[in-house]
Amino acid sequence: LKGSMLSTTEQIAFVLLVLVCGGLAFQGFQRIYLIVSQGEPSYRTDNFPSRLIKALIEVGLQKPLFKSRPIVSLFHSFIFFGFSFYLLVNINDLLEAYIEGWTTIGSSNPMALGFNLFSDLFSVLVLIGIIYFLIRRFIGKPRVFEFNKNVKLQNKVSEGGIRKDSLIVGIFIILHVGSRWLGSAFHLAEREVAEWSMPTASLVAPLFFGWSGLETGIHVTWWLAMGLIVLFIPYFPYSKHIHIFLAPLNLAFANREANGKLMEPADSSKPGASTLDELPWKQVFDSYACIMCTRCHEVCPAHESGSPLSPSALEINKRYFINQNSSDLASGKLKLDLLQEAISSDAVWSCTTCMACVEVCPVGNEPMQDILQIRRKLVFDAKMPDELSDALRSLDEQGNSFGESSRKRTRWTRDLDFPIKDASKEKVEYLWYVGDFASFNQNCIEKTRKVAEVLTAVGVDFGILMKDEKSAGNDARRVGEEGLFDALAEDNIQTLENCDFQHILTTDPHTYNTLRNEYPSKGGVYSVKHYSTLLMELILSGRIKITKPLKLKATYHDPCYLGRYNGIFDAPREVMRQCGVELLEMSRNRTNSFCCGAGGGQVWKKEHEDMKQRPSENRIEEALLTGANYFTVACPKDMSMYSDAVKTSGNENNMAVRDLVDYVAEAMELEKMTNEKTYEAVKESSIVEKDASELQV
Description:
Elements: H1 8-37, H2 48-60, H3 70-98, H4 110-140, H5 159-191, H6 199-204, H7 214-232, H8 243-252, H9 281-289, H10 295-299, H11 301-304, H12 311-324, H13 326-331, H14 338-342, H15 345-348, H16 356-360, H17 367-380, H18 386-398, E1 421-422, E2 430-432, H19 436-440, H20 445-457, E3 462-464, H21 474-479, H22 482-497, E4 503-506, H23 509-518, E5 528-530, H24 531-540, E6 552-556, H25 570-578, E7 581-583, H26 615-624, E8 630-633, H27 636-648, E9 656-659, H28 660-667, H29 670-696
Parallel strand pairs: 1-3, 2-3, 2-4, 4-5, 6-7, 6-8, 8-9
Helix pairs in contact: 1-7, 1-9, 2-8, 3-4, 4-5, 5-7, 8-9, 9-12, 20-28, 24-25
């Protein structure tokens, strides 16, 4: 071009537009800061530079997005990478408008040619991506965008409001990118050339060769492309599109503690939250980072089963209420009542605390933390389902959720042919923290005995706390009873301090999680092992000898508190492989495993009246699709839940539920070993008696 694209008048008008819209946007971002800063302390800014660098790398690689929905994530990456490059494109367009003679079109400079090529290709990719999403949202209407009829959506907000926001953002992107791409074609048509560095624009350019309105077209497309960005800026603070700024920050604020460690209450004298400002500020910030993709309720077992919980609806309701009342919220004149505007109490008590919503969120949101904060407040105010009150009372009075006397905790040992050490009185290598379900539940006791038999058969030095053991408190804490958890932890730590052991062993992932991740902050620092890890070590070291490899086909269920919470995925699978079991994976496995539905106190609650299918039954159906005949568990609660599920779903003849230890016992021929040891013991006893008789003679 011989001169700058815009006239002096246009240049001034554009600057004024930027100043006005920039001022309005600043007010919007200022309100966001004021609202977020009202939240309770949340310690997420330590080593912030390294946090931010890590988050930017992850976002740059689109790593968080590809946790699920690979096809959708691919099309999103088209938009992301295209828009990222468009920062340079927009800068170039501004230079073209204000600097005389500035243009990359027609240049032979390698950098200019490369710039043109990427601009052209990314423009098309962005358009393809956004058209895909608009078709998916408005024509395809996948089930994942639907909310259960009993999910609470704020009165002023509907799924139509979500679609409206999606449509506005979609149209903006199409007009912005499309105008810029068409403007490039007009530039080529003005020169009546086609350039290899602009392949798609060159296909369109010949259609406009000789057109008298090219100069006007170039001006119009420039103003559409650049003017729309400026006009859209004030809408950013209210749009889900703000996630392009806030998602990297939210990921930088991610929890760096162990997944299984809950946040301590900011104020132990009044724990929990009933209003937005009582939540930690990170949970308030989540509202703005949410992109309303509904990935969280797609993996939520409570939502899938038909309960009123949707983690997505929780964040969306917070976001829309904030947007509609941002000025009053920022000034402190109004508070967002979470149970009135964001979520129902039924939904709060439906959460299984499986953490799937946290794991799958591509922008680092933690809706489960909101729910736990609300639970803390409800429990503090004595507002909870009656069955939960009964379970918590039992934990407080008896130290277990079954209401049984502590003297009955060792009843499962009565049918064993050998004594078990009392770890409260004797030195042991492994202190076996058995747990409530493994001790009292009838579906689990047989497996508990078998673990004891296997460990004894191979000479593992272990003992149990006998009647001194109490629940570790994992479920009590996730129900929201912080005071009871503290009391249980204090009692248990005091008991353990009087014992002499090297490691704590447990078969219960819930107990494992609490002892490993939450007791250290209370003063209880221990080496904790899950039995799947110990069994693997015993097999690989040769102490457990596999003499009869099994020829079975089985699938394995990853317990939430073992896998997603604590990253133990390989040990159970290796045990199965060593035992000769062919593993047939379910489609949802490892970090994407589907919850059994017992966690978060659900095992103590009645089923919700609107439940259409138990999560455990859903999982059994998934397991049947693998062709396996055995459903493998490594958790006492799973044993209980899935043993019932195969019955209630009518699949007793199609699927057998087995514990990991069942394979080990069978593959090492435990019964044969036990018979041989019994025979040798009897034989030795007979010889001793004979020698004594002869000596007497």
